[in-house]
Amino acid sequence: MQLDEQMKCWNHAAVKVLDIRRIVMEAGAQLSSYTLPANGFIYTIRGSAVLQLDGQTYKAERFYMLHGAKGSSLDIQTNEDFEYILLYYRAFLAFPSYRKKWLLAQPEVAPFSLQYGFAPSSPLGLLRYLDELEGAWIQSGSLDLLHTQSLFYQFIHEMMVQLAEQEIKTELADPVKQTLRYIQNHYREQVTLDFLAEQFNYSSRHLSMQFKRQTGYSPIDYLIQTRIAKARNLLLRSDATLSEIAAEVGYSDVYYFSRIFKKHVGISPIQYQRKMREEARTEDRPLVISESSIGRRWKSGYIDYENHYQYIDGGSTPMKRRKTSSSMIMVALLSITMLLAACSSGTARTPAAGEGTGASSNNSSTAVSSDTASQTNKDNETRTVSTVKGDVVVPANPKRVVVLYLQGDVVALGIKPIATSEVFNGAAYKSELEGVNSLGTWFEPNPEAVIDLDPDLIIVPSEETYTLLKDIAPTVYIPYEKMTTEERLQSIASIFGKEQEAETLINNLNSKVEESKQTLADAGILDKTVSIVEGGLKGMVVVESKQYGRGSQALYEYLGMKAPEVVQKKIDVVSEAGGSNLSMEVLPEYIGDYVFRSVYEGADNLTDDPIWSSIPAVKEGRLIEIDFDFFYYSDIYSINKQLDFVVEKLLAAPRAQ
């Protein structure tokens, strides 16, 4: 972008001063990897320092001006006491006609995103405006804030005059390099494509297209690869638990972390750790080769974790090892290659807790009213649906439905979507979705894939996914965690005009619940205590709410069975997903007449543990293992199947006295 084009932008701009502050850094102090939260000017007043903006180095002496775009990474290394003024602002093209003209001419360039540094020819003139801006900003009265707007335009005019006089070279901030750097520094945090686009002031679509053009990956794919690479390193160089590693690389759900690791690496994290450490030992002792690597058998590993929905803070310390595996080298080369590809491609021109918490009861909040919110417009074949995001006009008979996480309720209503978020293999409705496109995790869907499918209706379960996909097609947000199973089904049914079908499903579920309770009562089981646990040798989570999942809804909510008193006291007062992490030594106090244990691939074998084996429910055969995948979901389809499973297993177990 040429300087004269930037001047034209300022002539059509609306601006808002966000902050102005004076900062003093002592000699030797440094600022590292600070991300500019908005476009900003840095004007040095005294002292000297080396400044880096997105890797570009500027030597700042007294009276030096630096401009950076939102999302740029700033580093400062001081040589002596260093004082500067930092001015943040937001600017956008105010007039629709000019904005449209700009987008048509250069749609991949964000206005006001220039990066430049220079020593002003008349430094005191700029300082005078900045001093007045600071004074007006500190006063904070309405007239003073209005004065800052006026002073800001005068400051911009003076600076543009001096830039033009010196013919200063300007550069566009490269969003791909910014995104790469941001992911490398913030991969532990929740990152979405929409967030990255907002962070660097570009549209999601343009950022994704440009990123993929330069690196060959979408931003979210690169984020996943970065996390997996970090996890591999921790698995090889530390003795951290799987829960700690998952949390360290940005996954609060260790089970999901294990699944995505296996998807990208080919084996589970524990198998990978054992395999690579064994190979390392073989490399370190080349003469000790006891078996063929082709025929090597791996013992089934276990996942050591506490709660699939509990985030555990804490990092890990890498441990030294003499050799690095070839696969680790390949991961490192991949990351370096991607970074170099982005940096060498020239200046850029552009501006998816666990699902199955089972939080579905005891809250009457609804998103859609089936009586008044759905109105069919027969002439246009559309339906207006009232949601927490306002009215949404949807097709009366949608043909290309995309649904995230809520697919079980959609399937129960007799609708087969064209794409859904990832469904676990053991899900009750897995076979009903055969041939349906997978869009990845429900909280990190791939927007490009959704666009390619050309949907006519999208149903999402969160604010984040709504924001990410709402511009692609009519999108309905269902806040499922604030609704009961029945309320959620009714809301989804009203989108399709299937209120009657939903009512039938609910009545059938209620009938099944009453029949199941009578059957268990006749067998002398309904009044017995039940516990639900999950974990392994290093600790067990005891479920202490009806909203936790793992069968808690089927057992505690629908069947109305009770837990041991120490657990039931918490179930009676907890309205959200909750559980306690206990050592094996105290676990027996929390186990009822029957115990349900959630298991998954690689779960600990507890057969030889003396404490576990001595628990009466376990010793007498009233241990019932439940598949994690099967009990992960809380939709009406899954609840029906879970009730069948629970009743059948309780009836088949030895009777508790």
What does this entry look like structurally?
The termini are far apart. Helix 5 packs parallel to helix 8 (about 220-235) and helix 17 runs parallel beside helix 22 (about 635-650). The protein is elongated, with a radius of gyration of 30 Å. With about 650 residues, it is of the alpha/beta class. The longest helix is centred in the N-terminal third of the chain and has 25 residues, at about 140-165. Mean pLDDT is about 80; it is low at about 285-380.
Write the layout of secondary structure elements.
Blueprint: H1 3-11, E1 13-25, E2 30-35, E3 39-46, E4 49-53, E5 56-60, E6 65-68, E7 73-78, E8 82-93, H2 96-105, E9 114-118, H3 123-139, H4 142-166, E10 171-172, H5 175-186, H6 193-199, H7 204-215, H8 219-237, H9 242-248, H10 254-265, H11 269-284, H12 326-343, E11 375-377, E12 382-387, E13 390-395, E14 401-403, H13 407-412, E15 419-420, E16 437-438, H14 447-453, E17 457-460, H15 463-469, E18 475-477, H16 485-496, H17 499-522, E19 530-536, E20 539-543, H18 552-558, H19 565-571, E21 579-582, E22 594-599, H20 610-614, H21 616-619, E23 623-627, H22 636-652
Parallel strand pairs: 14-15, 14-17, 15-16, 17-18, 19-22, 22-23
Antiparallel strand pairs: 1-8, 2-7, 3-6, 3-8, 4-5, 4-7, 6-9, 9-10, 11-12, 12-13, 19-20, 20-21
Helix pairs in contact: 3-4, 5-8, 6-7, 8-12, 16-17, 17-22
